[in-house]
Design brief:
The complex is a heterodimer of chains A (about 280) and B (about 400). By secondary structure, chain A is mainly alpha-helical. Chain A is about 80% helix and about 0% strand. Chain A has helices at about 5-30, 45-55, 55-90, 95-110, 110-130, 135-165, 165-175, 180-205, 210-215, 225-230, 235-275. The longest helix of chain A is centred in the last third of the chain and has 41 residues, at about 235-275. Chain B contains nine helices and 22 strands. Chain B has helices spanning about 15-25, 85-90, 135-145, 150-160, 180-190, 210-225, 235-240, 260-265, 270-275; strands at about 1-5, 30, 45-55, 60-70, 75-80, 100-105, 105-110, 120, 195-200, 230-235, 245-250, 255-260, 280-290, 295-300, 300-305, 315-320, 325-330, 340-350, 355-360, 365-370, 390-395, 400. In chain B, helix 3 packs across helix 4 (about 150-160), helix 3 (about 135-145) packs parallel to helix 5 (about 180-190) and helix 4 crosses helix 5 (about 180-190). Classes of the chains: A mainly alpha (about 280), B alpha+beta (about 400). Chains A and B meet through helix 7, helix 8 and helix 11 of A and strand 8, helix 3 and helix 5 of B.
């Protein structure tokens, strides 16, 4: 049954993939459409790309989003790693279960609630100590860190648990003090998880519309906020062009990741051959 | 008696391995081969006093006492969950004690963290650092002690030579075979010249043939470098081959401590008699307690033993007989006298060099006897086969008195 290729499965797969990718392909094609009205084909053109590159508003939003995402990812990785280390490597301590629950709570909290509560918090804080005077870059960044940290903590926690403690114990046994164990053994071993945690936090921040809308202020438009506000005024082809560029960047990143993975696989195979060769 | 050179004598030599090999790592050389018998001799290197460890309701290690002397190769032997690994981890400093005290070289280890203990450990998983080459793995411990660079290079080179891995020093652990990884792990633990090396199932991950070969290598290396080894193992053959002394552990306690010969020839309990090798066990009562002997009446036979402690007549006791210590001959005669019993062959297992006979005794008990196959099977007269009547006998010194 598994050997024969089932026609039914092939059709379902084709339909599934089509459902995912046809909208994107359409978006890419329409970004090259000369016509101002999206569904009407007016011939191939780079007109909207040209317009996009001229639009200061768009580039300011892109730049703001990238800055927030980078800062967010870095802090979220730092704090998330510390939280994960406390959970996995510090044994039992008082309030550990509560702490663990509080770390993962933002994962299940509806974004609307998170956004609203943060807005209330920032407003009250402003009343109390006069900071933040204005909502925008700083408040969005803080808001993003609070929720993406949870994702990083969970990623790192899984990796730490999977790694076991043998290597760290071995390093301590050989005379490495706790900080040295962290820098020489734990962190290098964690690198893949740190990278994926950072990228996850980066993507989450770049992607977020709901929370950012709550805590943003005048003039601070992230890219999702900008796109969403423009869509409300009607579909515009320059947004298609922007989306096409984003898709292209993501495609390049995925391709690089695939090549790196393939290389790693080859290296693993070579290692195994070496180990078996002169055993 | 021990000769104690000036403190730190071993540590100052840069070309350390030669020093290690000639003088022993700690500079101490044991004159006595059996320091544990030497009452007023050297002080034990490791003193374990009343140590217990509990995990919740489960007691992993239950109030154990043990002295281990410099230069010993001591094995902790027991089944899984008997507490042997927990005890080793407490020595290394990875587990805290609930009660008791561990002293190494006279120093209480209670407040000494793992990274400051004069011990090194070889992990069952080897725990080699996958992001470092063989060379860097071995150098890691020396770097932590801020040993000068040139000395590190020399010492790493020497130890690689000892474990015959010079060719592989640039390789990463995952580019090595299981046996090579095991040797890297050993070298990494040895290069710091610890007072005490702890080995957790050092051979368990190797296949059977390599394991046998490595057993002897390990014992040789221990002899060359003179470091005190504590080896945890579940393999009784490994413990017998390697150790100068061993402790048989069960349920968090030491059942018996002694040399391999003592443990095999004079087990004190049924558990040890059965765990190390195999034993036929008879239950009985003391029928006579002489000055130089003891007689035990069992269901099957009266056993005369020319050694053992004094016991009151009538007390309940167990007697063990090793299968290879029983003589078996084909005979129709009825048993007459002590340490003799007739029986009927129930089953035979032919193993080539020896055969195992399962013999049914008059009371229905079936016991094992192993005997070498000295004569060729053509000799039909003497050959023992199924359903044959046989006579079993043993020396008065062969039986083992088991207290529980």
């Amino acid at each position: 049954m598994y050997g024969k290729r089932s026609r039914f499965l092939t059709i379902m797969l084709t339909l599934g993939l089509a459902f995912f990718y046809i909208p994107m392909i359409m978006l890419v094609i329409y970004s090259f459409n000369y016509s101002k009205i999206v569904p009407v084909w007016g011939g191939w053109s780079l007109r909207w790309y040209n317009e996009l590159f001229q639009s200061q508003e768009v580039w300011e939003a892109v730049s703001l989003s990238l800055q927030i995402a980078t800062l967010n990812a870095t802090f979220a990785t730092l704090l998330g790693t510390l939280a994960a280390l406390a959970m996995v490597r510090f044994g039992r301590f008082k309030g550990r279960t509560l702490f663990g629950g509080m770390i993962v709570a933002p994962l299940v909290m509806p974004e609307v609630i998170t956004g609203l509560s943060l807005l209330v918090f920032f407003i009250s804080l402003n009343e109390l100590i006069g900071w933040p005077a204005q909502r925008g870059f700083t408040t969005i960044t803080i808001a993003h860190i609070t929720f993406s940290m949870a994702f990083v903590a969970v990623t790192i926690q899984a990796r730490l648990t999977g790694m076991g403690q043998d290597l760290e114990e071995a390093a301590a046994d050989l005379g490495a003090k706790p900080f040295k164990v962290l820098t020489a053994i734990t962190l290098p071993r964690l690198t893949p998880a740190l990278v994926s945690g950072w990228l996850l936090a980066f993507t989450l921040s770049l992607d977020d519309l709901v929370i950012a809308s709550f805590v943003t202020g005048p003039g601070a438009n992230t890219l999702p906020i900008l796109i969403f506000s423009r869509i409300r005024l009607g579909l515009r082809p320059d947004i298609n062009a922007l989306a096409t560029i984003i898709i292209l960047v993501i495609a390049v990143c995925v391709a690089i990741a695939a090549i790196l993975m393939l290389r790693q696989q080859r290296r693993d195979l070579r290692d195994q051959q070496l180990a078996a060769g002169e055993g | 008696m021990a000769v104690v050179p000036p403190a730190g004598a071993a540590a100052l030599a840069p070309n350390s391995l030669q020093t290690i090999v000639r003088h022993g790592l700690n500079g101490t050389q044991t004159v006595s081969d059996t320091p544990w018998l030497d009452q007023d001799g050297q002080k034990p290197l490791v003193q374990i006093k009343g140590v217990s460890k509990k995990y919740g309701d489960v007691t992993a290690v239950d109030n154990v006492d043990l002295d281990i002397y410099s230069g010993e190769l001591f094995c902790l032997l027991g089944g899984s969950g008997c507490g042997k690994s927990t005890l080793l981890r407490m020595l290394a400093g990875f587990e805290t004690l609930n009660t008791g005290q561990i002293l190494i070289d006279g120093v209480d280890m209670a407040d000494v963290p793992a990274y400051e203990r004069p011990t090194n450990m070889m992990f069952q998983s080897y725990a080699l650092f996958p992001h470092m080459s063989v060379e860097k793995n071995i150098a890691f411990g020396l770097q932590q002690d801020r040993v000068p660079k040139n000395d590190i290079t020399d010492r790493v080179h020497d130890i690689l030579k000892l474990v015959e891995l010079e060719k592989f020093k640039k390789r990463k652990p995952q580019q090595l075979s299981g046996g090579q990884r095991q040797r890297v792990a050993l070298a990494r633990a040895l290069v710091k010249q610890p007072k005490l090396l702890l080995l957790d199932e050092p051979l368990a991950a190797l296949d059977k043939k390599l394991r046998k070969q490595t057993q002897f290598e390990l014992a040789n290396i221990q002899e060359q470098v003179g470091v005190t080894f504590i080896v945890v193992t579940h393999d009784q053959e490994e413990a017998m081959t390697l150790s100068s002394r061993m402790a048989v552990m069960d349920a968090g306690r030491f059942q018996q401590i002694g040399t391999p010969t003592e443990i095999y020839e004079f087990p004190t309990s049924r558990f040890v008699a059965d765990f190390i090798g195999s034993a036929n066990i008879f239950e009985g009562r003391v029928s006579e307690d002489g000055a130089d002997h003891i007689t035990v009446q069992t269901d099957a036979v009266e056993i005369f033993i020319d050694h053992g402690q004094s016991l009151s007549v009538g007390s309940r006791i167990w007697v063990g007989l090793r299968p290879e210590k029983i003589r078996i001959i084909k005979s129709d005669d009825a048993a007459s006298g002590l340490n003799q019993i007739s029986g009927k062959v129930d089953d035979i297992g032919y193993l080539g060099e020896t055969s195992i006979y399962k013999v049914e005794l008059p009371n229905g008990q079936i016991i094992d006897i192993t005997a070498p196959n000295q004569s060729r099977p053509m000799d039909r007269e003497q050959r023992i086969t199924w359903e044959d009547k046989v006579m079993l006998s043993w020396d008065p010194s062969s039986a083992m008195l088991l207290s529980s």
